[in-house]
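Renewal narrative, Specific Aim 1. Our central claim is that a sequence can be written position by position from structural information alone. The example that follows is taken directly from our test logs and has not been curated for this report. It begins with the structure tokens describing the chain, in the order in which they were read.
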């Protein structure tokens, strides 16, 4: 593909890239979708204005000096990248300095001889747009001057390439710039004006008003371009049940918790029939995470074990080198419609995993286990000796080959209403010992990603991204985050990336697929949102919780750090109690006691130079957390000015506010004194002492 052929797409990508990092500006009227021809099957919209929730979220940062400088630096970087291909953009002006907050994109992939594409970008400076584009395009299409036409008040610039018979063009009007692969597409879009109907698929965009990027596809129009049954095209699709109108639509939503990509649509008839056996189980899928280990590396759950059956042949093939997979497949085959989940528990010294099938009660679990044992012989395995996981816990059966080698193929047993299979002893043991407090469902990295996708899921998958977060810590340790504002944002973004989740929802007709990147990071650093829209760039944006009004950027940063520190102290307190049979640290030595769990930085206030310190509620010192009835109401840690005598009816934090961490871990910013009640734990009544046993008369 020569440079002229690539020009329209390059311009579209450049516009999309810079849209990821733009400061807020006044937007043009929202009529860009009217420039997408009404008979085109696919349309997308990017809207960074305050008109939607994602745009409003980003608008909060438009005046942040670090954010503005990061945007400028990113813009210069993209301009230098484009200029390195010989396109004469001034890097100091940045990329597309005339663009506004909105974009509409239309695609007609079935057009011949090449697919048709149209990109409409809201424009805040018509003259600057003309100058910038003519300079850039002129540096690519050398020795050729554009032909200029006036159409519906817009200037159309046509760059005809005779040897390619192509006319990549763009139009500049009041409030928009329009790119297309040919001048005919440009002219048709402009001539339609108000009469140009929105694509039928664009009606779906109305349900994505909170998305920064949204899309919709009209599959009925796509089907018209598919080969006829004689060519094996449409007929084959019809056999698969795909010829119906599925009309997918979706978008990308941003918030301080991360980014969520959602896709919705009608299920093809054949897929709906295939999904029928496990439709009714969607409500149960969320319960399986309560039986998987908290520190799992990755996990996948399904409302019905039958959803794994399409993978049966692949699992059998893998089972030739990993016999434990044969046992896992046997358990899935015996599970019927019961919800199931699998979790990766280790990668070293070899990959290890657990499989859990949840049944209605212990009787059903025992019956499933018995059914599994009956099938062992057919799979060339037998049940070996029972091994006790832990005192008071059910025994696990060792699975070994029926003949020959005595290698262990895994361990299986019952844990309450669940049947548990582990590929190794350690994994089986960890799963059998899971409690609600030590389950995957209690892992903040898991809930941070999956919690963004509410509702019942027929299946979901999650993987921790601690390795990505670790790179952020390494960059910070090397001082990289201080080399430039962009590097600081990028480092914080890596540190904040802690979980990636995917979910599939099903009902009788609809299917939904959602992908969420959780970015509510560890309490030691501010919250980060990562924008990865359109696959063009990754940019970290500091996201703040709802703090009070703070006068400057430094105060905002200190505010965020303090909240993060308090959250970290709350976590450290629970970890300390877990290691000390529930007992909380002494009030006088709590910093030393918690430092191994929280780190020295978290114990120190960002306002330490101003005499602000963290204090521990002395009324909690030495208590057992299991005896405290109101953990969500009693303050554990709080900010305090050391120059002020301790008084529960006084606010003595910076900016006339006080950030406090409650015993259950949540953090609040108080602008009113908390009062004595907030520091007073409610305790369980002590057990009554037993009455002394009276000895029979006459006996010593």
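The sequence written for that structure reads:
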């Amino acid at each position: 593909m020569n440079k002229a052929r690539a020009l329209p797409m390059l311009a579209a990508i450049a516009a999309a890239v810079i849209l990821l990092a733009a400061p807020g500006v006044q937007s043009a009227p929202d009529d860009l979708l009217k420039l997408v021809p009404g008979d085109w099957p696919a349309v997308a919209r990017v809207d960074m204005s305050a008109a939607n929730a994602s745009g409003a979220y980003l608008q909060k940062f438009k005046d942040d000096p670090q954010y503005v400088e990061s945007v400028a630096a990113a813009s210069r970087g993209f301009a230098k990248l484009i200029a390195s291909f010989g396109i004469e953009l001034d890097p100091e002006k940045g990329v597309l300095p005339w663009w506004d907050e909105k974009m509409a994109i239309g695609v007609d992939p079935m057009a011949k001889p090449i697919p048709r594409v149209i990109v409409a970008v809201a424009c805040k400076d018509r003259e600057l747009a003309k100058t910038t584009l003519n300079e850039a395009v002129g540096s690519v299409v050398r020795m050729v001057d554009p032909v200029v036409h006036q159409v519906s008040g817009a200037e159309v610039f046509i760059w005809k390439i005779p040897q390619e018979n192509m006319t990549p063009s763009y139009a500049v009007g009041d409030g928009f710039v329009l790119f297309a692969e040919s001048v005919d597409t440009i002219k048709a879009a402009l001539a339609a004006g108000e009469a140009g109907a929105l694509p039928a698929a664009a009606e779906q965009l109305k349900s994505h008003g909170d998305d920064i990027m949204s899309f919709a596809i009209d599959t009925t129009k796509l089907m018209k371009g598919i080969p006829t049954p004689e060519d094996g095209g449409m007929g084959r699709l019809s056999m698969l049940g795909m010829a119906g109108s599925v009309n997918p639509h979706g978008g990308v939503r941003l918030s301080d918790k991360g980014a969520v990509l959602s896709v919705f649509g009608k299920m093809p008839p054949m897929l709906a029939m295939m999904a029928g056996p496990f439709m009714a189980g969607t409500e149960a899928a969320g319960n399986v995470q309560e039986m998987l280990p908290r520190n799992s590396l990755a996990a996948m759950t399904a409302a019905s074990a039958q959803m794994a059956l399409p993978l049966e042949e692949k699992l059998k093939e893998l089972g030739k080198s990993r016999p434990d997979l044969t046992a896992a497949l046997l358990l899935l085959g015996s599970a019927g419609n019961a919800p199931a989940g699998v979790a990766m528990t280790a990668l070293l010294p070899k990959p290890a995993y657990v499989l859990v099938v949840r049944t209605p009660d212990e009787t059903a679990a025992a019956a499933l286990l018995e059914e599994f044992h009956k099938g062992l012989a057919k799979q060339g395995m037998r049940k070996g000796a029972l091994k006790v996981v832990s005192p008071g816990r059910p025994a696990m059966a060792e699975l070994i080959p029926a003949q020959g080698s005595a290698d262990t193929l895994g361990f299986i047993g019952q844990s309450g209403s669940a049947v548990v299979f582990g590929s190794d002893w350690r994994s089986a043991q960890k799963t059998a010992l899971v409690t609600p407090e030590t389950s995957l469902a209690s892992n903040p990295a898991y809930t941070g990603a999956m919690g963004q996708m509410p509702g019942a899921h027929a299946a979901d998958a999650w993987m921790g991204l601690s390795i990505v977060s670790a790179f952020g810590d390494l960059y910070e340790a090397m001082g990289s985050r201080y080399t430039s504002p962009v590097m600081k944002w990028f480092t914080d973004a890596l540190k904040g990336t802690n979980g990636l989740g995917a979910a599939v929802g099903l009902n009788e007709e609809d299917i939904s697929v959602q992908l969420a990147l959780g970015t509510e990071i560890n309490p030691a650093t501010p919250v980060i949102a990562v924008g990865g829209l359109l696959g063009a760039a990754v940019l970290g944006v500091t996201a703040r919780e709802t703090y009070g009004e703070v006068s400057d950027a430094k105060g905002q940063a200190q505010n965020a750090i303090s909240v993060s520190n308090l959250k970290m102290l709350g976590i450290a307190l629970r970890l300390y109690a877990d290691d000390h049979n529930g007992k909380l640290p002494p009030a006088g030595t709590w910093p030393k006691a918690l430092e191994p769990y929280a780190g020295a930085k978290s114990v120190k206030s960002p306002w330490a130079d101003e005499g602000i310190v963290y204090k521990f509620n002395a009324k909690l010192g030495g208590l057992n957390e299991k005896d405290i009835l109101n953990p969500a109401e009693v303050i554990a840690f709080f900010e305090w000015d050391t120059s002020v005598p301790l008084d529960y009816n006084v606010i003595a934090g910076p900016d006339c506010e006080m950030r406090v961490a409650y015993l259950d871990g949540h953090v609040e910013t108080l602008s009113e004194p908390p009062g004595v009640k907030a520091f007073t734990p409610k305790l369980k009544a002590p057990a009554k002492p037993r009455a002394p046993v009276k000895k029979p008369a006459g006996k010593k």
